[in-house]
Amino acid sequence: MGPIWSSYYGNCHSLLFMVDTSNPTQLSASCVQLLALLSAEQLAEASVLILFNKIDLPCYMTIEEIKSLIRLPDLIACAKQNITTVEISAWKGTGLSEVLRWLEDTHRMNG
User: Fold this and answer.
1) Is the dihedral of CA 91, 34, 98, 102 positive or negative?
2) Residue 60 lies in a domain
3) According to the annotation, is 53 in a ligand binding site?
4) I need a surface site. Which of 8, 39, 58, 102 has the fewest CB within 10 A?
5) Residue 54 is assigned to a ligand binding site
6) Model confidence over 67-97: pLDDT tens digits?
């Protein structure tokens, strides 16, 4: 799906990007997709929420390991966008209230 994402960038004010923390073999591919999104000129003004999902699984990587592997501090420092991160479990609902609060706040700023 990544190759067609750019056709949906128009009038985008918010971007949610989900990372599967239980699948470290896909982390590099996720990072490449995230870099492509962050470098898209049409998304330069968008607020970005990175969701680190599946924190409830036993093979879950720590947030520190993930941040290090995708060089998150460097991404945040170099990105034009305002980037927020949240650790969630979509299955158990952990962290979803933070996601809703971010969506409400972002909508209020862009509305």
Assistant:
1) negative
2) yes
3) yes
4) 58
5) yes
6) 888 899 999 999 999 999 999 999 999 999 9
Q: For residue 78, tell me if it sits in a domain.
A: yes
Does 55 belong to an annotated binding site? Answer: yes
For residue 69, the surrounding DSSP H or E stretch is helix 63-70
Q: Give pLDDT tens digits for 11-61.
A: 889 999 999 988 888 988 999 999 999 999 999 999 999 999 998 888 767
Predicted model pTM: 0.90
Whole-angstrom distance, CA of residue 3 vs CA of residue 6 = 7
Q: Rounded to an integer, what distance in angstroms lies between the CA atom of residue 110 and that of residue 11?
A: 11
50 within a domain of the structure (yes/no): yes
Residue 4 within any structural domain of the chain: no
Number of structural domains found in the chain: 1
Residue 97: which residues within 8 A CB-CB, separation 6 or more? none
Domain region containing 79? 12-110
